[in-house]
Design a protein that fits this description.
Chain lengths: 395, 404, 343
């Protein structure tokens, strides 16, 4: 199979059974044949079993009424909606918890990783203890522990911890007030997007100007003003509707406001604490891998430790950090499926109920796999793009 | 004194940090010692007597046998205990570099036989299986020792494989009577009664052991020049790595019965093991690929230049070097899977975390999740931490030779 | 069969592939194997639960013991496989178990689409609600806005949504796969209400309330929102085995109706009543027709008891559950349990 050496004319007279090209193809044909046989074997069995047990196939059920309620949904959902919508609700919940998990785990992980390199021995040791404690115990155990702690330690809704009649903490979750729904909100969202786009453009322009003229432009402040200012302007223009929806104890539960459920909290907490331990190690080894001259040079320039970290060390370490970080982000996404153990309605939970109600396991497991694969591939694609962007451009 | 100054009080900010942290630690520690030791209840007839006190270690005292061994018949608990000890001995012996030769094969054969004999109590080997094993071992020996063994040895391997083939053929046409070799020193205990630490250890250890050869093949396939093989391997690896382990476990528990011919069932425990093996093989393949990539190109070229076949090149030159490099990351993969096997509780297998969880169900002892989970976390920590330390030690040891 | 042998050779599967019940005559394979593999719930007090020595007891368990007594003359030749509500049908379809005695509701969908056969109804049940007494709720109609703990993938979950929709009420579900986790969530106060079959509610109330609370701190609401006839299920295909399971249940009912109990059964052998003589096999023929030995009812009643005994011992007043027999009384006492006659 040393294919590098083939193709040159003097090899043309080799007997066919010794020709590496032919051998290669024969070998491949055998392997593909075996895999094909296995696939055929499984598929025929499956078809036979499905027919014998009269299990329906196809995705027609997706448009049927789901009939089950879901505890946490970002879009409107009721049992009268279809299975497709129920699965979409689960998918959005997965994306929500994975997205927030990635953000918080990155922040916390970076802090802990930097903390492990602190000149303060005690702080470094505490950070090391944190890393070892969270890395060496299964995530599922943390999830169970946090969930049980929240539901056992917090009081019921009627004895909720009350902060200024606005925040209510109970075993039903954390209730807090939100602005009541108003037609202006979608426009404010658009304003926010426009602000972000504007900030990015501004930042680029500022960089270009600095490169051309040497004058720095406070693009961070200007950008922030743009991002915050635009939605506020729209809000003011819309007559500044300030009606709030306050949580209120009515009957069994709080009504109004919005809630962060215990299942969500436990899941997010578990994912963030567990993954941040791994991220901390990645960040630490990224920084350690840098030449010592870098921090010495930064010190010689008169930068403080924090400045050196932010302006010199972290940007360079980022190049080493991004590839392993990608796999941690993928892990958060995949591990969010542990939600099913503590009852958070994520994608796997929704699909699992659908399997039970419809009996169509194959179609549904395919949905799970395709969904996670596409999320994983998107994250990989984004991180690869980012990695290329920050890669050292050698001239 | 100088150390203190340099490491804790090098600057004002540092000093303040130190003091604040010290105070926080002192406060936490005093609370923890009070809860876990001073006011803790060590033995009690029921959870009721723990209320109003500190940690309820009485719960652990009451349930520890269930947590460790699950529903294994109570009076036979010494069997899983010795099985765990056998596996521990096996793992610890394999950690010693002096054992990294033929002895390893003996350690694992004896250790595995002991473990499964203790767990099952009886092992029945049908004649077909014996011939099948003879075929596999014979063929494996003949192939692996092809270039290094003496002709007599190779012929011996071939003869073993031949016996296997002949036996299987005779069995198939019915000329050879079916018989079963039965080793039955103890009463039979089926896998549905297994639980606790042995289950976690078996799933992690044997899941990875069986995944290892598969991982090597996948890694080699991914680096191969043959387009079909390469795309098959890449597809498999990326598919498995892109989906959560849970989806594979659900597949194994709900879909696998549909894949098999009607009437054929596979033990639930084996199903989970198969899912773990498939999952692990993709991750191991990537680790090994890292090792393959780290080899300088000259090694491949030199092997080619010597006129070695692909097989010789791989088994004699490439793999020995690549595997040496990947031992530490492989141990990290093992740690990962030791923790990840806890997911099997979702499909109803009683691994260590599941039995710990079940111990909370007893209403007599309800309401002390913290104690149970701390205990379980401690056990997991002992395993994972010691392995990660070993992996670090090994990394520096193995690098000694290459460092200049 | 050919494919099966190919598959068997694929790997060391043979090491583990355990006593699989091959397709075809289930009864033959059960007899050949020498024991009955019985799928039971993972733990519902009174219906199926294992003590710390691993001995199973309960109403569902008694069904399997009785079938074993009918087939083997020995009620202990049963292997119990605990199954979650999600695993149970696959386990029966794939032959992992011979019989499902799993608090399973007989429905048309399951009878037809899942390839099962439900035999005689062993327990007339219905879905209810369990609430803490301190909430002061008297009726399910007052549950608007409540948080409800429920197991996923059951008819329970659908009934619940239907009931709230029909009564124009809303609820928040907390859905966890494992029944122990759902109960834990309910008792810790995460939910206001726990819903499942009312048998399960009584079982939970009797056996799972964590100290220091007691069973009296929880009430089962009067509303029953669904019909849940619980029946053992077998695979579609072997009618003879299905018959044995069905007639085992009828035998236990007939025994109760004619006053044959585990204590009186030996005396009853001397009875002159022709019906009793037929039932107990003193007049031979019945067992033979069914394909078991003529003393089958004697074995069942002697070793397991009649239906009333089993009920009282496991879930009735003689147990911690203290469930009123209600619909499960014999027809002669105003209930629904009406056995086809053994003649």
């Amino acid at each position: 199979m040393a294919v590098e050496s083939i193709g040159s004319p003097q090899h043309a007279k080799i007997a066919p059974w010794n020709d590496p090209v032919i051998r290669g193809w024969v070998f491949q044909a055998v392997v593909v044949g075996l895999v094909g046989f296995l696939a055929w074997f499984l598929v025929t069995n499956t078809v036979e079993n499905l027919a014998r047990q009269k299990i329906a196939s196809g995705y027609a059920y997706l448009s049927h009424e789901a009939g089950f309620e879901i505890g946490d949904s970002m879009i409107s959902y009721s049992p009268a909606n279809t299975y497709a919508r129920a699965i979409l609700v689960g998918m959005l919940n997965t994306l929500k918890v994975a997205g927030l998990g990635i953000i918080f785990a990155t922040i916390l992980g970076t802090l802990i990783g930097v903390g492990r390199l602190s000149p303060n021995w005690l702080l470094a040791k505490i950070c090391e203890g944190y890393v070892e404690a969270f890395r060496n115990v299964p995530l599922l155990l943390w999830l169970f522990l946090f969930y049980k702690m929240i539901s056992e330690a917090f009081p019921g809704p009627r004895q909720a911890l009350n902060v200024l009649n606005a925040l209510f903490l109970s075993n039903r979750g954390l209730y807090f007030p939100v602005p009541a729904a108003d037609p202006i909100h979608p426009w404010m969202g658009l304003g926010l997007l426009a602000g972000i786009a504007g900030a990015v453009v501004l930042h680029r322009w500022g960089k270009q100007r600095q490169a051309a003229t040497g004058k720095p432009f406070p693009s961070i402040w200007a950008g922030a003003a743009l991002i915050v200012g635009l939605p506020i302007l729209i809000w003011l223009a819309g007559g500044a509707p300030h009606h709030m929806s306050w949580p209120e104890l009515k009957g069994f539960n709080f009504v109004g406001g919005t809630v962060i459920q215990p299942e969500f909290t436990a899941l997010l907490l578990g994912l963030v604490l567990y993954t941040s331990a791994f991220i901390a190690e990645i960040v630490r080894s990224g920084i350690l891998a840098l030449n010592k001259g870098q921090s010495e040079a930064a010190a010689a320039l008169g930068l403080s430790r924090a400045q050196a970290m932010r302006l010199v060390l972290l940007p360079q370490a980022l190049r080493l950090i991004v590839p392993p970080m990608t796999s941690q982000y993928l892990n958060i996404t995949k591990n969010s499926s542990l939600a099913i153990a503590i009852g958070y309605p994520d994608l796997v939970a929704s699909v699992n109920v659908t399997i039970n109600q419809t009996g169509q396991a194959i179609e549904n497991v395919l949905i799970i796999m395709v969904a996670y694969l596409s999320v994983s591939l998107s994250i990989s694609a984004f991180m690869n793009w980012y990695n290329k962007r920050i890669a050292l451009r050698e001239r | 004194m100088g150390w203190l100054r340099q490491n804790l009080f090098s600057s004002w900010g540092n000093g303040i940090t130190t003091v604040v942290l010290l105070l926080a630690i002192a406060w936490l520690l005093s609370w923890f010692v009070d809860w876990a030791v001073l006011t803790a209840v060590w033995t009690a007839p029921s959870g009721q007597d723990c209320r109003g006190h500190g940690a309820c270690w009485a719960l652990i005292h009451e349930k520890y046998r269930y947590i460790f061994f699950g529903s294994f018949p109570y009076e036979q608990h010494w069997r899983p205990l010795f099985a765990v000890l056998a596996m521990l001995a096996m793992l610890i012996l394999s950690a010693d570099r002096r054992m990294w030769n033929k002895r390893l094969l003996w350690i694992w054969s004896i250790g595995s036989a002991t473990t499964f004999l203790l767990m099952f109590g009886q092992i029945n080997i049908s004649s077909s299986l014996i011939f099948f094993l003879a075929l596999v071992i014979g063929a494996g020996g003949a192939v692996l020792r092809a270039t290094v063994g003496s002709p007599i040895e190779i012929n011996a391997w071939r003869a073993l494989a031949g016996i296997g083939v002949a036996g299987l053929a005779l069995r198939l046409v019915g000329l050879f009577p079916a018989f079963t070799l039965s080793i039955a020193p103890f009463s039979y205990v089926e896998t549905s009664l297994w639980g606790g630490l042995p289950v976690t250890m078996i799933l992690a250890t044997y899941g990875l052991l069986f995944a290892f050869p598969l991982g090597i093949l996948l890694a080699l396939g991914r680096r191969s020049n043959l387009p079909l093989i390469k795309s098959l391997c890449v597809g498999f690896i990326e598919l498995i790595r892109g989906v959560p382990l849970i989806s594979l476990l659900i597949m194994a528990s709900v879909m696998l019965p549909l894949f098999l011919p009607s009437g054929m069932t596979i033990d639930k425990f084996l199903r989970a093991l198969v899912a773990v093996i498939l999952f692990a093989s993709a991750y191991i393949a990537e680790v090994i690929r890292g090792g393959l990539q780290s080899l300088p190109k000259g090694q491949f070229e030199a092997a080619d230049a010597m006129g070695l076949t692909y097989f010789q090149k791989t088994t004699l030159v490439i793999l020995p070097q690549a595997l040496r490099v990947v031992i530490p990351p492989l141990i990290n993969t093992f740690i990962g899977f030791f923790k990840d096997t806890s997911l099997v509780l979702i499909i109803g297998i009683f691994d260590f975390l599941n039995t710990a969880n079940q111990a909370l169900v007893d209403p007599k002892w309800a309401g002390f999740p913290g104690e149970i989970y701390l205990f379980a976390a401690f056990v997991y920590f002992c395993f994972c931490f010691s392995m990660s330390r070993y992996s670090k030690y090994l990394e520096t040891e193995l690098n000694k030779g290459t460092r200049r | 069969m050919h494919k099966a042998s190919v598959a068997a050779a694929v790997g060391a599967v043979a090491l583990f592939a355990s006593g699989s019940a091959w397709a075809g005559k289930d009864l033959d394979s059960i007899k050949a194997r020498g024991n009955l593999i019985c799928g039971v719930p993972t733990g519902i007090a009174g219906f199926a639960s294992a003590d710390s020595q691993g001995k199973w007891t309960g109403l569902d368990v008694d069904v399997c013991r009785a079938v074993s007594a009918a087939i083997f003359g020995d009620s202990e030749k049963v292997k119990y496989v605990p199954l979650t509500s999600q695993q149970r049908f696959t386990a029966l379809q794939s032959g992992e178990v011979d019989i499902l005695s799993n608090n399973t509701t007989a429905t048309l969908q399951r009878d037809t689409a899942l390839g099962l056969d439900f035999t005689a109804i062993t327990y007339y049940d219905g879905q209810g609600f369990l609430v803490p007494k301190k909430l002061g709720v008297k009726s399910a109609k007052e549950l608007n806005g409540a948080t409800v703990c429920v197991a996923p993938g059951t008819t329970t979950e659908l009934n619940l949504a239907d009931y709230f929709r029909a009564n124009k009420m809303t609820f928040k579900p907390v859905v966890i796969e494992k029944v122990e986790e759902i109960r834990a969530a309910f008792f810790s106060g995460r939910c206001d209400v726990y819903t499942t079959d009312s048998s399960g509610l009584y079982a939970t109330r009797a056996a799972n309330v964590p100290a220091p609370a007691t069973a009296d701190d929880y009430v089962v609401l009067p509303e029953i929102i669904s019909k849940e006839p619980l029946a053992p299920a077998v695979r579609h295909g072997d009618q003879q085995f299905a018959d044995i399971v069905r007639w085992t249940q009828y035998a236990m009912l007939e025994a109760e109706e004619y006053g044959i109990s585990s204590k009186t059964v030996d005396d009853m052998l001397k009875s002159d009543n022709p019906t009793i003589k037929r039932i107990l096999g003193v007049t031979p023929g019945m067992g033979k027709a069914l394909g078991v030995e003529d003393k089958w009812v004697y074995n069942i009643v002697k070793q397991v008891g009649n239906y009333g005994e089993s009920f009282e011992r496991n879930v009735g007043m003689g147990s911690v559950l203290k469930i009123d027999r209600g619909l499960n009384k014999l027809w002669t006492q105003g209930g629904l349990q009406y056995a086809e006659p053994i003649r």
